[in-house]
Amino acid sequence: MWVVTRGRIIVADTMTPEMRSRVMRAIQGKNTTPELAVRRILTSIGIGYRLHVKALPGSPDIVMKGRKKIIEVRGCFWHRHEGCKRACTPASNKHYWEPKFAATVARDNRNEVALINGGWKLLTIWECEADDTMLLCRRITEFIGESIR
Ligand SMILES: [Zn+2]
């Protein structure tokens, strides 16, 4: 069970391994709200994109093929947004969580390097940044560049 206290997620130590992996899958699931926010902005400014492109390293979330640009929308908790209060470590079961976090961050880094080496430009949007629509708009339009003006 997940308990949210003053914006921090605390994981109560009452989960079976099956429950825990179900929760993990739900949180890691696609079409999360921050991703939809990014997609809505792109659509609203007339930018076409493809979703979860499996042919590219890490199946990036939002791919603008013609522009050679990718936007990754990352959950602060799983992807360990540095300095973000949402990237807290659960108090119990550290031996369970820490290797999972480390593996996720290592995988993200590997995929990023592979994409950059392949000539892609990347923008990472953290879920906490998606709360601020104006900031989100600015970051996305800056990333897309002058071609939309
Ligand atoms: Zn964050």
- What distance lies between the first and last C-alpha atoms, to the nearest angstrom? 47 Å
Rg calc: 17 Å
Count of distinct strands? 6
Largest beta-sheet characterization: 4 strands, mixed
Strand residue content: 15-25%
Descriptive report:
The chain contains four helices and six strands. The protein has helices at 17-28, 33-44, 94-117, 133-144, and strands at 2-5, 8-11, 50-51, 62-64, 69-74, 121-126. Strands 3-4-5-6 form a four-stranded mixed β-sheet, sandwiched between helices. Helix 2 packs across helix 4 (133-144). The model is unreliable at 1-13 (pLDDT under 50). The structure holds zinc ion. Zinc ion is lined by residues 76, 81, 84, 86, 126, 128. The site of zinc ion has 6 residues, from loops.
Please summarize what this structure is.
The protein has helices at residues 17-28, 33-44, 94-117, 133-144; strands at residues 2-5, 8-11, 50-51, 62-64, 69-74, 121-126. The protein has 149 residues and is an alpha+beta fold. It has a 4-stranded mixed sheet with strand order 3-4-5-6, sandwiched between helices. A two-stranded antiparallel ribbon has the order 1-2.
